[in-house]
TrEMBL record, chains A, B:
Keyword Protease listed: no
GO annotation, biological process: endoplasmic reticulum to Golgi vesicle-mediated transport; nervous system development
Keyword Cell division in record: no
Signal peptide range in chain numbering: none
Protein name: Trafficking protein particle complex subunit 6B
GO cellular component: cis-Golgi network; endoplasmic reticulum; trans-Golgi network; TRAPP complex
Family under the similarity heading: Belongs to the TRAPP small subunits family. BET3 subfamily.
Pfam families, alphabetized: TRAPP
Length: 171, 171
């Protein structure tokens, strides 16, 4: 007979991805041949990995979706459906100059939550953002949008545990 | 103003983890120094990575959970809460001899769904199972249960797209 009954959703639903991302980070930095001097190459590896995940994920997410009417429409999809699929929350703020520059703001970026605030935080941040930059670039690429994706972090006061990420997309 | 409205869940909710797992696999096998001869070492790397993810995940999942009353109780938690957290479905069947051997059966194991059926399927399967074996071992370890976790695959007729995984745990 059945040994257990159904279960409801928990707040840990995004955690497997988060933990696996962290392991990938550790693995790439530990297995780097040239040691600490090779930070740029490690960042590139993470970005590439993110790119492929973003491509595949967007392919699946848009399988049954009607075509997008313009670039802004695509960007809204990234902020809403795509971001929720990966991070279980939406982008908090999307701005654009209507000339190809988009700024996406996540006020509680999950992949930074394992870092504590302070100086070290700002130094370590780039390696925690590289995968996600690639992720967005890959997602857009799958929809035919070539882009440059960069990220910046703004640290909140140490007593607040939020991690803000601002993402700029030039397409 | 807000550029978009809330969104509902989709069937792709488990996909980010799945795609990232696949990239990890590719990366480890591509970056292996000794090439194809080193399959055992790659399997061990994947198993170790899974172990750490399983440990961290179980730590988080049981943070607010009352203590378990026995080993079977822990096993049910793995089949239900833990499995759903990672694979968005429960284990389909849990059997035990009540002497420390548990058999967990997943009739639609997500991390095998990218493989097509046939001979190659059985050859390739071990590398797609290693991470998850470690995952379960790590999860149990976090709850103080030492275990040996092995996995086997049973292929359905090619016309059926289900991928069955049977997992044995000796604790």
């Amino acid at each position: 007979g059945t040994l257990f009954s159904p279960r409801e959703g928990t707040m840990a639903d995004e955690a497997p991805f988060q933990f696996l991302h962290n392991e990938v980070l550790q693995y790439i930095y530990k297995s780097a041949e040239n040691g600490e001097t090779d930070n740029g190459r490690n960042i590139a590896k993470l970005e590439n990995m993110g790119f492929r995940v973003g491509q595949g994920l967007m392919e699946r997410l848009t399988k049954d979706t009607a075509r997008f009417k313009d670039e802004l429409d695509i960007m809204k999809f990234v902020c809403k459906d795509f971001w929720t699929c990966v991070f279980k929350k939406q982008i908090d703020n999307l701005r654009t100059n209507h000339q190809g520059i988009y700024v996406l703001q996540d006020n509680k970026f999950r992949l930074l939550s394992q870092l504590s605030a302070g100086k070290q935080y700002l130094e370590q941040a780039p390696k925690y953002l590289a995968f996600t930059c690639g992720l967005v670039r890959g997602a857009l690429s799958n929809l035919g949008v070539k882009s440059i994706v960069t990220a910046e972090v703004s640290v909140m006061p140490a007593c607040v545990s939020d991690h803000k990420m601002i993402r700029k997309i030039f397409s």
